[in-house]
Amino acid sequence: MPGVINMDELTDVDKAKMERDQKKIEVKLERWMTSKCCTEFMEAVQAGVEEDTLVKGIAEDKNPFKELKGGCVVC
C-alpha cells in the first residue's frame, strides 16, 4: 500500500497523471439510478432497525455515558 502523498511536492504533470488514473478507475464503476439506491438503502436500514442503537437506544446497564450515582470527589 502506498504511503501518504504530499500534493504540494508533486509537479502539475504528476497531479494530472494521478487525476487521469483516478478517472480511469471511476469510469469502470457500475452506476445506479438514485431512486434504486435510495430504495435499497431504506430497505437495509429498515431491516436492521431492531439492532440499531440510534433507533432503540442503549440499555442502561450497557451505557458507558450514563450518569454515575454519587458523583466525583476531589481530595
UniProtKB/TrEMBL annotation:
Gene3D superfamilies: Transducin (heterotrimeric G protein), gamma chain. One of its GO terms (biological process) is G protein-coupled receptor signaling pathway. Keywords: Cell membrane, Lipoprotein, Membrane, Transducer. It is a lipid-anchor. The keyword Transmembrane does not apply. It is found in: Cell membrane. One of its GO terms (molecular function) is G-protein beta-subunit binding. Guanine nucleotide-binding proteins (G proteins) are involved as a modulator or transducer in various transmembrane signaling systems. The beta and gamma chains are required for the GTPase activity, for replacement of GDP by GTP, and for G protein-effector interaction. This is Guanine nucleotide-binding protein subunit gamma. It comes from Salmo salar (Atlantic salmon). The lineage of its organism: Eukaryota, Metazoa, Chordata, Craniata, Vertebrata.
